[in-house]
Each structure stands twice: as C-alpha cells, then as structure tokens.
Amino acid sequence: MGVSGVAKKSGEQLSASSIWLWRFAQVLVWLIGFGILFCLWFFPSLGILMFWNILIPVAPLLLVIATGVWRNVCPLATTNLLPRHLGLSKRKIMTAAQLGKWNLASVILLFIIVPLRHPLFNNNGHATALLIFIMVIAGISIGLIYEWKSAWCSGLCPIHPVEKMYGQNTLLTLPNAHCSQCMNCVIPCPDSTPNINPAASSKTIYHKISGNLMVGGLPGFIWGWFHVPDKTDGIHFNSLLQTYEWPLIGLMVSLSLYLIVSKLIKRNSERLLISVFAATAVSFYYWYRIPELFGFGPFDKDGLLIDLSHQLSAWIFTTMAIAFTIFFWYWLVLRKQNKKSWIIRPEFGKKISSANYNPIHK
Predict the structure, then answer these.
(1) Which residues pair with 348 in a beta bridge?
(2) Is 295 in a helix, a strand, or coil?
(3) Which of 29, 75, 319, 343 has the maximal Cβ count within 10 Å?
(4) Which pLDDT score, from 0 to 100, does residue 74 have?
(5) 92 three-state secondary structure
(6) CA gap 2, 119 in Å, rounded
(7) How far apart are CA 111 and CA 353, in angstroms?
(8) What is the pLDDT of residue 195?
C-alpha cells in the first residue's frame, strides 16, 4: 500500500467516536500522571513508589509490544502538544541538522538523568516532581514554536531514543490520536516508519552519533547502572563520580563492541545487529529489575516495590527474569519483522509559512 493508501485508510479509521475514545484515554492517563506528580510533591514516598517502582518498570515492556499506545497517551505528550491542538503553535518545520542536534541532545540527557536516580531522584520525590515539571515546561515552550511532535516527542524527549530502541518490531499499528494531518515535520517520522530504530536516519553527523550512542551504548549503560547503589548522603563530587563510573564504563565497552562488529558484518545484517543490542539492553533491565522489585536486589531495599524475600524463594524471580529474556530475544531478534509502524500516518496537510502564521489557524 502506498502513502496515499495509508492516508486514506487512516482517515477512515479516525472517526469521531474513535477520536473521543482516544481523548478519554489521554485524559485518564493524564489524570493518573497528575496524581503521581501530586503524590511526588505532597506524599513523596508514595509518589516514588508509584513512579519509579510501578510506572517505569512497566514502560519498557509496553514500548517493546505496542509503542504506539504510549505515543498516543503519554501524559507529557498530551500536555506538550496542547499549543498545537489549541492553534497556538507557530508550526515551524525543523531542518535535518536541527533535528539531528536535538536527537543527540535527547540521548545525552538520557545518559545524564538516569544515573542521577541513585543519589537524587530515587529517594527524593520533590526532585523527581521538579524534573517532570521542567520537562513539561520545556516541551510546551518548544511546542509553541515547532510543528506537532517534532520538537519534543520526536526530538528532545529523553524517552524517545528508548522508544526507537525497543519499538523495532511492534505488535500493533494504531490510529494517530494527536496529529490530525501529516505535515512531514520529522523525516523519517518515527510514528509512521515501519520498524524504526535509533540508527534509521543518517542524514547528518548528529543522527549518526546519536544512533551509535544509543544502539551501542545502552546495553552496557543499563548493566553498569544496576551495579551502583542508591545514595542518601546528597550530591557531592565523590557521589557523582561513583554514580556515573559504572554506567559510563559499561556504555563505552558495549559501544566499542558495537562499532567493531558493525564494521565487520555485511550491511544487510546491520538491522539484525541493532535488534541484538536492543534485546540485550531490555533483557539486562528486567534481569536485574524483577528481583529488585521484590526484595532480592543486591543493594538492600533499593528499587523495592514489595518485599517478598521472606515469603518466596529467589529462584522464582530468577526464573521470571529468564522468561523475560527469552521473550525479548524472540520478539526483537528471532521473530520476523512485520513491517508495522507504531501509528498510521494521517492524511497529508498543507504546510504554512511563518509569514502566514495565524494563532487561530486550525
């Protein structure tokens, strides 16, 4: 089916009833997100439990199976796209160089923010709430300037590189619950490009660097992250050194391995190599995270959801981790790529220039 066929199909699927169904889902998830943010500020212990030990552990699995669900209902996206939905955005289109820089910045932000969970965010609800609030303000600010998802959801958001890493072989292709028309604001569009991955675009040197960093660096980064304990003595030079040491060592080792192997293999095997590194990364995450959630982690009660260490045996959760690993390797590596995108591309719209910008433009 060509692009025009996809556009026609999407127009048929986005009926008024389906739009309102997605709006209901977006509002519901937004309210849940607001509830978590409220708890992070006023009931920090509960907020930390809900955000870091319930929402975040579920997210990678959702991204592997159905990235489009998250892309449609992410509460940050719902908030940050309000300027566009309300007709307040200037709707500028980014150049390839701009987008490449923002994609590289999103990967760097990911590698900066995640280690800070150990000395700060994992034990400080106010700091986590402030982090979320800063991302909301940043997203709304750039959403006032740039078209649709280009600035935040497909640009600066530090979660977006993870979406592309894990969402390479999605189960579902869903209607687009945000973009009413495709304005070609991101090329290639991560939402509507089948089997998208972090290395899918090599338009600029920034795209190449961000793709290599994400694909090659993420497995080792995750492995190293789980070898650092949470700290409660605040942020200082020594704590920062310990916080970043193992994640960065792991990142450099796996990145070096990826770059070496990518030079040795044939070009038509590159996608398989990317899938192997993606499966390794998400498998590392659940290998350590599942036992940790239930009191079998290496660092006392770090990342604890509910302590079952006195009721159940450790082998149960080791078996669960093995099962998850087998699933991810099947899903991302062994399973045939189904040529599905996260979301159906909506019909194409007419671009506007800055000179013709009208704040009440539909």
Answers:
(1) 182
(2) coil
(3) 343
(4) 97
(5) strand
(6) 50
(7) 36
(8) 93
Q: In the numeric block, which tokens belong to residue 207?
A: 């795209």
Q: Which two tokens stand for residue 128?
A: 């986590």
pLDDT for the residue numbered 16: 64
Contact (CB, 8 A) for 138 and 153: no
What averages of pLDDT result for each successive group of 10 residues across the chain (362 residues)? 38 65 95 98 97 97 96 95 93 92 96 96 97 96 94 95 96 91 90 92 91 97 97 84 95 98 92 97 98 94 94 96 98 94 89 47 37
Q: What are phi and psi of 33, to 5 degrees?
A: -60, -40
C-beta atoms surrounding 322 within 10 Å: 15
Token pair 């159940």 is at which residue? 312
Task: Name the DSSP class of 356.
Answer: G
For the chain, the distance separating the N- and C-terminal CA atoms, rounded to the nearest angstrom, is 29
Q: Which of 251, 212, 205 is nearest to 112 (CA)?
A: 251
Q: Which two structure tokens, joined as six digits, stand for 327?
A: 């699933």
d(CA 257, CA 215): 11
Residue 142's pLDDT is what?
Answer: 94
Report which of 249, 327, 245, 324 is spatially closest to residue 288, judged by C-alpha positions: 324
- State residue 182 phi and psi, 5-degree precision: -85, 120
φ, ψ for residue 3, nearest 5 deg: -60, -40
Report the C-alpha gap between 176 and 179 in whole angstroms: 6
